[in-house]
């Protein structure tokens, strides 16, 4: 225990904010504690600015006293309806609340709140590792209050509820997602009785807003490795309420001795592979979604076995629907994920056959600035147990990337803009906006993609004139180059 005392005092004494809050509490004659994630992170040796304070009394009054002691250097915000207050002081955001106890109705996550003791407040915490408190009053400065032995659970790397798991999860089902998220972020196990409670109460997630669920899901996706959190959700029966399309990927079907791979575990492997090379949330989402349409496109043929023809296009069409339901952003981020899902087979197809400049140009044209991310996804998608096969594919991908660099340096099609604009076509032929303009631009684009002309104004303008003449258009003006 002496080791814990030294660690606590070392942290508290290194930062003036704790003595300031403790002094303000003594002046008001109330007990004050720093609680929650900050206390947990002291023992995990993780930096944290997540400062939550509980006092046995009015949290608002304590916040006001702290703000006064800072003499105008802080900004005080009071939220009377919630009985909470916030003091912003430099880089700090200090959250204050009075100790309370809560009770819940079965159809709502919103608790009925009453004033309570420190013990009441700790009882309402989600997990033992988040239920520890450190006293800040001068007489007990640095005393750890740990009624549920959270210290031991930290040592054992265990997520456990302080009370009966059924009460904890039924009262606030979002704690199901939080528990899995903490396990994923910290690399902890979930205690057997807590895991059973999650399983029994998974259906209660239906009363939680999708925004809150997705917020926790994104944190799981950003953990390393993210597959751990997904496996916990799957085995606890949580994933079918959060992301049913992903559950549909699970399983292997065998016909005439021919089986396909389990696309659920393949997807998790791809996600982990991507996560080794990027922390980008949306590239990780692309990994999750890349095979999402395989169940819908699965077919069996006696000659070739299992096929999933068109799953990339079907998957790209599914992306907006899933993003909308999960309250994910329907902006460029969705378009980015959709693009990578649609294109994820293209580089693999290039690896399988001799690479032509035309194929490379078309891939660069369609992928644009996302081509590097597409290649990361494609490399992650090689999950064969045959190490030599994986290395062969990765070596071929390097050749494709070299070819991309050569073609892009020569033809500049990565962010393709036609050398001849629609306005130029209208001016050259003296025509208004009309269908022939788009047709001429498409002919020019195809000629560039196929390598028939260089991506330059001169050759493109000459082709424009020839194409217009074939269409019965007559040039009325020569444009200066």
Automatic annotation (TrEMBL):
Cofactor dependency: Mg(2+)
Family matches, as CDD domains: HDc, NT_ClassII-CCAase
Keyword ATP-binding tagged: yes
SUPFAM superfamilies cross-referenced by the UniProt entry: Nucleotidyltransferase, Poly A polymerase C-terminal region-like
Domain HD: 265-349
InterPro entries for the chain: HD/PDEase_dom, HD_domain, NT_sf, PolA_pol_head_dom, PolyA_RNA-bd, tRNA_CCA-adding_enzyme
Keywords of the record: ATP-binding, Magnesium, Metal-binding, Nucleotide-binding, Nucleotidyltransferase, RNA repair, RNA-binding, Transferase, tRNA processing
Domain annotation tRNA nucleotidyltransferase/poly(A) polymerase RNA and SrmB- binding: ranges: 187-246
Superkingdom of this protein's organism: Bacteria
Pfam families: HD (PF01966), PolyA_pol (PF01743), PolyA_pol_RNAbd (PF12627)
Poly A polymerase head domain span: 32-160
Family: Belongs to the tRNA nucleotidyltransferase/poly(A) polymerase family.
This protein's name: HD domain-containing protein
Organism: Imperialibacter roseus
């Amino acid at each position: 225990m002496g080791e814990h005392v030294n660690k606590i005092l070392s942290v508290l004494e290194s930062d003036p904010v704790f003595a300031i809050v403790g002094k303000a509490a003594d002046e008001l004659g109330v007990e004050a504690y720093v609680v929650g994630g900050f206390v947990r992170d002291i023992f995990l040796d993780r930096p944290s600015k997540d400062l939550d304070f509980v006092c046995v009394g009015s949290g608002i009054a304590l916040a006001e006293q702290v703000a006064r002691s800072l003499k105008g250097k802080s900004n005080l915000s009071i939220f009377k309806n919630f009985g909470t207050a916030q003091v912003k002081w430099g880089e700090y955001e200090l959250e204050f609340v009075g100790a309370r106890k809560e009770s819940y109705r079965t159809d709502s996550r919103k608790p009925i709140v009453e004033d309570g003791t420190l013990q009441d407040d700790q009882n309402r915490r989600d997990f033992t590792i988040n239920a520890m408190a450190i006293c800040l009053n001068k007489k007990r400065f640095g005393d750890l209050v740990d009624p549920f032995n959270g210290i031991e659970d930290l040592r054992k790397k265990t997520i456990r509820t302080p009370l009966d798991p059924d009460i904890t999860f039924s009262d606030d089902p979002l704690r199901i997602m939080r528990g899995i998220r903490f396990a994923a972020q910290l690399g902890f196990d979930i205690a057997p009785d807590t895991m059973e409670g999650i399983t029994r109460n998974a259906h209660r997630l239906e009363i939680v807003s999708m925004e809150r669920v997705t917020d926790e899901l994104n944190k799981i996706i950003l953990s390393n490795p993210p597959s751990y959190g997904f496996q916990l959700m799957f085995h606890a029966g949580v994933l079918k309420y959060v992301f049913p399309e992903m559950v549909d990927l699970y399983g292997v079907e065998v016909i005439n001795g021919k089986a396909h791979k389990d696309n659920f575990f393949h997807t998790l492997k791809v996600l982990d592979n991507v996560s080794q090379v990027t922390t980008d949330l949306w590239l990780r989402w692309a990994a999750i979604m890349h095979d999402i349409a395989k169940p819908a496109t699965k077919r069996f043929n006696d000659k070739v076995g299992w096929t999933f023809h068109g799953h990339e296009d079907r998957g790209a069409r599914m992306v907006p629907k899933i993003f909308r339901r999960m309250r994910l952003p329907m902006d460029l981020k969705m378009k980015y994920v959709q693009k990578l899902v649609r294109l994820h087979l293209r580089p693999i197809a290039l690896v399988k056959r001799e690479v032509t400049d035309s194929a490379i140009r078309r891939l660069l044209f369609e992928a644009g600035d996302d081509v590097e991310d597409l290649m990361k996804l494609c490399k992650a998608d090689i999950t064969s147990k045959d190490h030599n096969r994986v290395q062969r594919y990765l070596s071929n991908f390097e050749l494709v990337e070299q070819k991309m660099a050569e073609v892009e340096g020569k033809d500049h099609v990565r962010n393709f803009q036609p050398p001849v604009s629609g306005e130029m076509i209208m001016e050259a032929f003296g025509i208004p906006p009309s269908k022939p303009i788009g047709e001429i631009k498409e002919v020019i684009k195809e000629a560039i993609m196929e390598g028939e002309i260089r991506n330059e104004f001169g050759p493109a303008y000459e082709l424009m004139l020839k194409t217009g003449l074939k269409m019965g258009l007559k040039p009325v003006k020569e444009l200066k180059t």
